[in-house]
Each structure stands twice: as structure tokens, then as C-alpha cells.
Fold Diadenylate cyclase.
Amino acid sequence: MDRARIIAETAARISMEVDAAAIMVSGELNFEGIETGGIPVYYISMRPKSIIDHLVATGKDGKNPLKELSDQISQQAAGNADHLQQAAAIEYVLGEQKGGIIVGVIETRGSSSIIVHNLDENPIVKAVKECQERIKPEVMSAIMKISFDIALTGREGQKIGTAFIIGDSEEVLKRSHQIILNPYAGHDEIYRNVLDKRNWESIKEFAQLDGVFVVDESGIIHAAGRYLDVDGKNVDIEKGLGGRHVSAAAISRDTVAIAVTISESGGVLRIYKDAKEIICMECMRPAIRYI
Ligand SMILES: Nc1ncnc2c1ncn2[C@@H]1O[C@H](COP(=O)(O)OP(=O)(O)OP(=O)(O)O)[C@@H](O)[C@H]1O
């Protein structure tokens, strides 16, 4: 029996034994004809950093080759676990997974990992749940879906970045001003509701404007093109990030709003709450269900 089939069958057997909610696969493993006991199999996109990891982990002269190999394996394994954690969290955010055990099979150059992951212990899922104590869960989920879409597809071939400041909108409006005319001013709530998918195209269109979106906890957009008048001094965020992220972190310190940012440069989604970055994830395409 070939190696790939042994791995797929083993993953399926483990999934049935631990009563997994899903099997998530990154790589070209074929589950055709493999009994999974009705557990669905999803394919997730490849880990974007895997090639970089490979380059970093190889070809360093003067190192003990065995140490080099073990470093490489542990680095890959950690990266694979991260990858599954992110992909599983995205499925949770998208409403595809509710919780429970996910069995991941991640294939990278020369190695395969089977990872048994408890979605209830997933740090991204925990952080999303923390936000949902302040913001309606469906609002949080809608904004994250729109954000992934913005990060992955951009607009007319251009990458775009933006930010959504959600909740405590009265205080956020007091601490900000329009840089351009507010495109949402004077419109009925039905055209400003993030829960209505028909409004998503216009949100993506306005995401190209400078400034941020101000959204209340029930999902009504109050403004786009809003500049945050906050003091960015002493905000403790990752080095190299600019005004968008500094102001998002600062408004989450000065109000009880949650700030979701999508960086123009890297397609990375971050969430700030109480001045802290509680989520930082590379945007990935949603998984595709196979069986
Ligand atoms: N205080 C602010 N309020 C609202 N929007 C802001 C603020 N500061 C910057 N921005 C927006 O962020 C955009 C990008 O700014 P900058 O490059 O400094 O941020 P950044 O954190 O590096 O973001 P990115 O990673 O997306 O480039 C600006 O063009 C502007 O639209």
C-alpha cells in the first residue's frame, strides 16, 4: 500500500475513534474510497509560509546535519499546527464548524503530519468568542467574512486595506471625523446593515476609501471614510505597523469598541480589544468540502 493511502486511512481511523467533527487536509492526499464513518473531509489551501520555512531551515553551512534536520522537522510541525489552527478557526468563523475535534492532515515537502486539534481550545476561536461578548456573533462573523474577501480579492486587481471599528459607536464617532463625505449618511438602515449580504459589494467598494468604517454592535454602519483622532503614543503593537493599526489599537483602548484591521501590505487580519492585539491571522481561502 502506498504511503499516502496509509496516512489517509490512519487519519480517517483516528477521526472515527475520537469522534471528530471534520477532517481537514492540506496537500494532495486522496480520500476517495476511504471509510470516514460519515465524517466530512475538507481541503484547505496550502500554507503560504511553508516554502519560506523550508528555505530558512536548510542550507546553513557549519551546522550539525542531524540538528538541522530536527530543527526543520520541529519548525515544520509547529507551522503545520498553526496552519490547521487558522484554517479550523476560519471554518468556525464562517459558521461551518461549531466546535469539537478536528483531525488535520498537513502535507509539506517531504513530510506529513496528522494533527488532532480541539476547536474549543483554539486561541483564535476563544478570542472571537471574547469579542462576541460585546458584539452580536453574527455581526462579528459577517465582518470577518467581508474582511477575508477584501484581503483575498482586493478591488480591480489592487490590494486594499481597511478597518472596521465595531461597537460603542457613539464614543467612536466622538473621537473621529470624516476625511471625505460619509457615503452612508442619510441612508435607511436596510442599506447600512452588514448582516444583509446585498450590502457587501458596496462595503467592499467603500473599503477603498481612506479611513475606517464605524459599525454599531447590531451591525448598522454609521460611517465610512472616518479618521480616528486618537493618541497613538504608548500603543504597544507589532513594530513596523503604521497609522491604521496604531489608531485601531488606540480606539480599542479609549472605548469598548473592537477594531478589525486588514493590512494592505500583507493580507493579514488583526483584531484589537482593550488596546491588545487578540487575533493576528493570515487570510486564507475557505476550505472546500470534498465528502
Ligand atoms: N488615524 C487614522 N484613522 C483612520 N484611518 C487611518 C488613520 N491613520 C491611517 N489611516 C489609514 O490607513 C492607511 C494606511 O496608513 P499606514 O500605511 O500608515 O498604516 P498601516 O498600519 O501601515 O496599514 P497597512 O499595513 O494597511 O499599510 C491610510 O491611508 C489611511 O487610510
